[in-house]
Design goal:
Largest interface: A-B, 32 and 33 residues
Strand content of chain A: 15-25%
Helix content of chain A: 10-25%
Number of strands of chain A: 11
Strand order of the largest sheet of chain B: 1-2
Structural class of chain A: alpha+beta
Structural class of chain B: mainly alpha
Helix content of chain B: 55-70%
Number of helices of chain A: 9
Strand content of chain B: under 5%
Number of strands of chain B: 2
Oligomer: heterodimer
Chain lengths: ~425, ~270
């Protein structure tokens, strides 16, 4: 076989790949050792767009709940927070309706209309003339500030929705906090999320003003059918989300996440959920210089497997019953503080759906990266605030610093084409005279 | 998956992206362009006179007078920026900011208004900046004569309405333009007047677009009324007096103006 024969190129590459793989893996093939596979398709040029068969994945927009809460988390996420510029209820209604129609398009995808080329184009064009849904979900939530005196919504404010106040270890940056409306995008691609953000900014310039935005991602794992489920790792290298309630378990989600008619909330809020967003900087250089045993002690789990010290795999439930002094799992270990596995602690479970973020280099030359923490719960006090208060003072604080985020309430879903986001909120506060 | 219906895009809040456009001939633009040229030459004449007084004060070491003249001198430059920017060498020499230069304030390429602003307001001195004053005067004089010989390209004039709003959105809203003197609201006003002037001149040609005209006017009025709250004497209060609420109102109106005015060239049949 001649290596310069174009007919033989694919074959020879494949054969070389196989040989290299065998050489590297040696006799370890039977173990779980990864067999390095060269992914290069010899037919591709360097600047060819990477290909995926997942770009047509789409999530339903209509439903009693918004998507993006119990929807399995894709690889890329973004949170954008806005100030509302509408000056009255009519403006707010226009905002909600426009946002609804944009989201309906963005989640379904399709052709972008062609305008007269003398005009600016209808969209950013970054996804081409036909937008692929790429598994996008857009989740709209509202902050406590929307319920001030501007729109007459005060009486309808969800019971535990307040402006986020700082916990002891927080160093909140005003430019990264709060907002009237928060929009979470998640999809299979960072560009899909960015396309959605730019579309919203372009279509609502007189109604929404971007306040802060944070992108994130989680590492993608190779599919392993039948294996134990594995949570994605955070930028500290630990699996994050191990103790989440099962998002596929509808009764459990109704108990912990979705507001119910008997939750004591305003009626319009049924089907919604509280969202806590936290931008948590990680001091990764320092973390990487911390001994493995200390890292594991701080979290209370094995780094490699995610298993608790009392188990073998990530999904094993930690057992503290024979460990009252914290000799196996430290009493101040992150997972033990956050969830002491008591019966009472079942009430405080939150549904975490975080992403990792990386923002380049901080002014001190260290990496500016961390966790875009996002969680959902039926009651903010009972959920995130209780859990965070349990964590206050934990040893992990030495390595993390929350700098931004906010508390929001995810609006109930849009049930059909006649419905729109926020309709029930506006209806609940409509003045009877008009 | 269902194919997208174009209706999904019909709710564009802009209400202006409709493909229907007025029939405007090149001839229709002759008068507005010539009126605009007059507007620019008047502002240029004022700019030259004021720059003379300003740079004289700097060179005479009269720091209080120089500080007082800084903002009123710049405002005329800001109002004609779309035309001034056609001469990129002069624009950089006259109006670049420290962060346009790798070594910021220490960069030898950092000259012009903001270099003098830095000396006057940050270093509180007129020492050692005589050369920068001379250079500014020379550049402004040069700009005046180059513009006098210029045939105004219609697309630049019409596009200038949006370009001025982009200027505001990029640097004035955040207070980054006049970071030592905090006189950003003067510059804001200059950009605003320049943009509105262009819009007023071409407005009679937008006969088929009453909704668009009304919306743009409405946002111009919002900016005008909000800025007016900060008037002080012949000028404007310091940028730090701008309330967070008003900053948001201005940002929203300016972003919407930038978005809407970006269609002006197309509406008038210009490429």
């Amino acid at each position: 076989m001649r290596a310069d024969d174009p007919e033989d190129k694919g074959l020879s590459t494949n054969r070389r790949r196989l040989l290299l793989g065998l050489g590297a893996a040696g006799g370890l093939l039977a173990s779980s050792s990864a067999l390095a596979v060269t992914a290069t398709d010899p037919a591709s040029q360097v600047a060819d767009a990477p290909e995926s068969d997942e770009t047509q994945e789409a999530q339903a927009f209509h439903g009693v709940h918004q998507s993006g809460v119990v929807t399995p988390r894709p690889a890329f996420g973004m949170v954008a927070s806005f100030d509302v510029l509408a000056r009255d209820r009519a403006g707010l209604e226009r905002l909600f309706k426009t946002l609804t129609s944009r989201i309906a398009f963005l989640m379904r995808g399709g052709e972008v209309p062609e305008l007269d080329p003398k005009l600016p184009p209808a969209d950013s064009g970054i996804l081409g003339p036909v937008v692929a849904p790429n598994n996008l979900t857009i989740t709209v939530s509202v902050g406590a500030s929307l319920f001030d005196d501007r729109f007459g919504l005060a009486a309808a404010k969800p019971r535990t929705l307040d402006r986020m106040s700082a916990f002891k270890n927080d160093a909140l940056n005003a430019r990264l906090c709060h907002g009237d409306i928060c929009v979470q995008m998640s999809s299979n691609g960072a560009d899909t999320n960015m396309y959605a953000l730019r579309d919203i900014i372009k279509n609502l310039p007189d109604l929404l003003l971007l306040r802060w935005q944070q992108e994130g991602s989680v590492p993608v794992l190779p599919a392993k059918p039948g294996a134990h489920h594995e949570s994605a790792r955070n930028f500290l290298g630990f699996r994050d989300g191990s103790a989440n309630p099962d998002s596929r378990d509808e009764p459990e989600m109704n108990r912990l996440v979705w507001v119910q008619p008997e939750s004591g909330e305003p009626e319009w809020a049924v089907g919604g959920t509280y969202q806590a967003v936290r931008i948590i900087r990680n001091f990764v250089e320092r973390w990487d210089r911390t001994p493995l045993r200390e890292q594991e002690r701080i979290f209370g789990r094995r780094k490699a497997t995610g298993a608790p010290f009392t188990g073998q795999v990530e999904s094993d439930v930690p057992d503290y019953s024979n460990d009252p002094k914290g000799e196996v799992t430290a009493l101040d270990a992150h997972i033990r503080l956050a969830n002491p596995r008591t019966h009472a602690a079942r009430e405080n479970l939150i549904l975490r759906r975080p992403f990792n973020y990386s923002n380049g280099v901080a002014s001190n030359g260290q990496l500016d990266q961390g966790l875009l923490f996002i969680c959902y719960q039926q009651d903010l006090e009972r959920g995130f605030i209780t859990v965070q208060n349990l964590l206050n003072g934990e040893p992990l604080e030495e390595y993390i610093k929350p700098v931004g985020g906010g508390y929001f309430f995810v609006l109930p879903g849009v049930v059909d084409d006649t419905d729109y986001l926020g309709r029930n909120l506006l209806a609940a506060t409509a003045s009877p005279a008009t | 998956m269902k194919p997208l219906l174009p209706a999904a895009f019909a709710v564009l809040s802009l209400g202006i992206a409709s493909p229907a456009m007025a029939e405007v001939s090149a001839l229709d633009l002759v008068q507005p362009i010539s009126d605009y040229k007059l507007y620019v030459s008047e502002h240029l004449a004022t700019l030259v006179d004021n720059t003379k007084a300003f740079t004289d004060a700097v060179k005479a070491g009269d720091i209080d007078k120089a500080k007082a003249l800084f903002a009123p001198t710049r405002i005329d430059y800001e109002s004609i920026e779309p035309i001034a920017e056609l001469f990129s060498d002069l624009d950089a020499a006259i109006d670049s900011r420290a962060d346009d230069h790798e070594q910021a304030e220490k960069d030898p390429g950092f000259t012009g208004f903001h270099r003098l602003e830095y000396a006057l307001f940050a270093e509180n001195t007129t020492e050692g900046v005589g050369e920068f004053a001379d250079k500014l005067m020379q550049d402004v004089t040069d700009l005046n004569s180059r513009i006098a010989d210029l045939t105004f390209p219609p697309n630049v004039v019409v596009g200038g309405a949006a370009a001025l709003m982009e200027e505001v959105a990029a640097t004035k809203i955040s207070g980054e333009e006049d970071r030592y003197s905090h006189t950003d609201l003067w510059d804001f006003k200059g950009n605003f007047d320049g943009s509105r002037k262009i819009f007023e001149l071409v407005k009679p040609l937008l006969t088929d677009d009453a909704d668009f005209v009304a919306k743009v006017d409405d946002n111009f009025n919002t900016v005008d009324a909000t800025l007016a709250k900060y008037k002080e004497g012949d000028g404007y209060q310091s940028y730090d007096k701008l309330s967070e609420d008003d900053r948001r109102v201005l940002a929203g109106a300016v972003n919407t103006l930038a978005e809407d005015l970006s269609t002006l060239q197309g509406k008038l049949g210009l490429e």
